[in-house]
Amino acid sequence: MNTVQPIRDKEIIQEIKRFLKTRSERNYVLFLLGINTGLRISDILKLRVRDVQGWKIYLKENKTGKEKEVKMPPDLKKVIRKYIEGKNKNDYLFPSRQKDKRGKPKPISRGMAYVILQEVADEFGLERIGCHSLRKTYGYHFYSQTKDVAALQEMLNHSDPDITRRYIGVNQDKLDKYQTNYKI
Q1: How many angstroms separate the CA atoms of 6 and 119, rounded?
Q2: Does residue 102 carry a catalytic annotation?
Q3: Confidence class of residue 148 from pLDDT cuts 50, 70 and 90?
Q4: Average pLDDT of 101-112?
Q5: What phi and psi values does residue 104 have, to the nearest 5 degrees?
Q6: pTM of the model
Q7: N or C, which terminus of the chain has less Cβ within 10 Å?
Q8: Sequence-separated (6 or more) residues with CB below 8 Å from residue 74
Q9: CA 171 to chain centroid
Q10: Which residue out of 40, 48, 68, 136 is catalytically annotated?
Q11: 3-state secondary structure at position 98
């Protein structure tokens, strides 16, 4: 199975933040938003400045069509506030160099987000990293801190707690631990 994985190591997450911050503010904020909200990349990329001006992000999920409300943690809000300073409220949060028919910037594509994450994966020797890794990282660390699978299941809009556990990789962690400690 070659599914993408969460980034489990908190030290590596801190190193990734430092790496991205020195290279591209846009990519740094994209990473932070993904690992701190649990939003799908398709929903993150369509965000505009106006969507993150308050403490909560309100959106209609691309995949499910459901209304979603996500409160930003204070550290993320501080970074977002600085990032959007001086930007037009209708601008995309993560603009690309591509323009639409009217000459206005389009948001970066999912493919570009993938390229950004592959650069991170290459830099830090991470395997099985993709766009879903941001959402899975959020879920993994939320669960590690709270052990509240029911709340996480609701946040991620999953229909079953087992799906949520499998999605964030905690079942695999348990299996890995058993394999490591197994003796005959």
Answers
A1: 16
A2: no
A3: very high
A4: 92
A5: -95, 145
A6: 0.91
A7: C
A8: none
A9: 21
A10: 40
A11: strand
